[in-house]
Amino acid sequence: MSKTLVEKIWDAHVVKSEVGFPDILYIDTHLIHEVTSPQAFDGLRKRGLPVFRPQQTVATADHNVPTLNQLQPIKEELSRYQVDMLTKNCAEFGIELYGLGHPFQGIVHVIGPELGITLPGKTMVCGDSHTSTHGAFGAIAFGIGTSQVEQVFATQCLLQQKPKTMKIEVNGALGQGVTAKDIILYIISKISAAGGTGYFIEYAGSTIEALSMEARMTICNMSIEMGARGGLIAPDQITFDYIKGREFAPAGEEWDKSLAYWKTLYSDADAQFDSVLTFDAADISPMITYGTNPGMGMGISEHIPSTASQVSSEQASFQKALDYMGIEQDTELVGKPIDYVFIGSCTNSRMEDLREVAEFVKGRQKAENVTVWIVPGSKQIEQQAIAEGLDKIFEAAGFQLREPGCSACLGMNEDKIPAGKYCVSTSNRNFEGRQGPDSRTFLASPLTAAAAAITGRVTDVRTLLNEPAHA
Amino acid sequence: MKKFEKLTSAIVPLNIENIDTDQIIPARFLKATTREGFGENLFRDWRYNGDNTLKTDFVLNNPAFKGRILVAGKNFGCGSSREHAAWAIQDAGFDVVISSFFADIFKGNALNNGLLPIQVSDEFLAEIFSTVGQDSTAQLDVDLEAQTVTNVVTGSKTDFEINPYKKSCLINGYDDIDFILNQKQLVVEFEQNR
């Protein structure tokens, strides 16, 4: 029988399937961080259980960590305590920890792929909704709650209903200044912040196939922003080339065996999806969000929709969002002064993002009114950026290259956007207060964020791409 | 886990759509390492001004609205996977959340903690908001065994869906870990046969 990619991987991991019950699904790799694990470790202690498969569990500290002077003790007491707890718990339960100071430390969804831990055909979970990132490799990867973290600790399994499947095809060539982030913001703006709920999404089509692994991770990362727990892309030569030679990737005979299996991981031609959507890459322009959920996005040169154009039951929530953002319906965002630019997060903090920004800002200067933070996704990326001299380019432009962590994506650590201030951010959520109490977020691509940093205003990056930078 | 069977209670209405987990509990309050005490910061930035004074127009600060049932607009609980959202709602004294649509991870987290998420139609939800708008003491009757919700004021009654396995977990107060631990031999066999 023909199967979708999701079904192939799912079926290969079902320990038990019984009518009237969720499947018992085997989990290959469990990633953990300091925020959503302590109560799960406590649960194990109360039950008197060990971690069943500690070798299949990997930990890092990312949400609470400072991104300046990282090796000094964390100033904020509760943050420090949570990070210390992770260190203690990992030692007690025999789990490998890439904590602060370790050369592999970084955002959990950045280090998995870069270390060759994330592989095609795997099932992977983490107490973090952006676990969908790993789906870029053709893995079933999704976020779980802390009770489920405890469940995986105790049994290396999860009770899960098999998800519905959706295929989203994007075809054609991308226009100038349009990147993976614009593709996913465009899709979410079309199907809404709830449009993917209940589904795992397979991204396909010629546009997706042409993307690098970094770009594919950006797309899969934001699947949850339309409600889908998982998003994935069939592995291909681009995937295999990315994985080969990485720290924990299979090698030698294991590599050949793995590769043979990975090449079977695609949706069969006549496989049935529960839903199929198709988009044309030519319709996508650089995107920006104007509201307080990631579905409230538009092409950067468009006007903010009118409240009256919304379904009547949604008008109050829509107007509430515009009020929070301090913007008016029917106006454009281009030209609006901004205060901060944040380039980072598990969505856009990889080497390719940093190189793209550096290339664009080389010979340019940030606007005086803007503070610019560039936060690499991992220690390895930070080191690579320095080795390539990107730090010098950023410094010359007035951009601050910081140390790796989740940083200003979520207003949990020291990096917060002050109340009332506007931030053009490459992260994934523009919820009220997400980047700090009363902060206001415009989500965009690294290129669009960099353009805003240069002009100090919301800017259509295409207008700058055509004029030369001055050294 | 806490058991749940039946509840008749007044309602706290929150007629806002797409309430995300950052509103339910902002990330800066996720630093505790136990499950207790999160209720204090439930809807923190909607309940308090920047100087920690109460926002008196927010429903949770209005003494007229008391009850163990939270009723909210569609796509409730979207955003992050933080189970702290479910813990905070429960810790603040709620046993049931009603909406016309729930985000997946929130729904799972709620069920894993004995907090019952009930999805009803847009019409039924609108009627609840209208009823409680006229009388803040209006009650709903929730019967998990029968899988029904009744608007006590209007008499309207609706069925709701729940996975039969999760239903039995709630009624009996047991969780997924107990369920899998009882079948651990199967897991070991699965690993050996790969």
Description:
The complex is a heterodimer of chains A (about 475) and B (about 190). With about 475 residues, chain A is of the alpha/beta class. Chain A is about 30% helix and about 15% strand. Chain A has 16 helices and 19 strands. Chain A has a 5-stranded parallel sheet. In chain A, a hairpin with a 6-residue loop joins strand 1 and strand 2. In chain A, helix 6 runs parallel beside helix 8 and helix 12 runs parallel beside helix 15. The radius of gyration of chain A is 22 Å and the shape is globular. With about 190 residues, chain B is α/β, with parallel strands linked by helices. In chain B, about 30% of the residues lie in helices and about 15% in strands. Chain B is built from 8 helices and 7 strands. In chain B, strands 4-3-2-1-5-6-7 form a 7-stranded mixed sheet. In chain B, helix 4 links the parallel strand 3 and strand 4. The longest helix of chain B is centred in the middle third of the chain and has 13 residues. Chain B is globular and about 60 Å long. The mean pLDDT of chain B is about 95. Chains A and B meet through helix 2, helix 3, helix 5, strand 8 and helix 11 of A and helix 4, helix 7 and helix 8 of B.
Key terms for this structure?
heterodimer; A: 471 residues; alpha/beta; five-stranded parallel β-sheet; B: 194 residues; 7 strands; globular
Main sheet overview of chain B: 7 strands, mixed
Helix fraction of chain A by DSSP (H/I, runs of at least 4): 25-40%
Low-confidence stretches of chain B: none
Number of strands of chain A: 19
Unreliably modeled segments of chain A: none
The description of the largest β-sheet of chain A is: 5 strands, parallel
- Give the proportion of residues in helices of chain B: 25-40%
Quaternary: heterodimer
Count of individual helical segments of chain A: 16
Percent of residues in beta strands of chain A: 15-25%
Pairing-aware structural class of the strands and helices of chain B? alpha/beta
Radius of gyration of chain B: 18 Å
Instruction: Please state the overall shape of chain A, judged from the principal axes of the Cα atoms.
Output: globular
Q: Count every beta strand of chain B, where a strand is a DSSP E run of 2 or more residues.
A: 7
Order of the strands making up the biggest sheet of chain B:
4-3-2-1-5-6-7
Portion in beta strands of chain B:
15-25%
Largest interface: A-B, 67 and 54 residues
Strand order of the largest sheet of chain A: 5-4-3-6-7
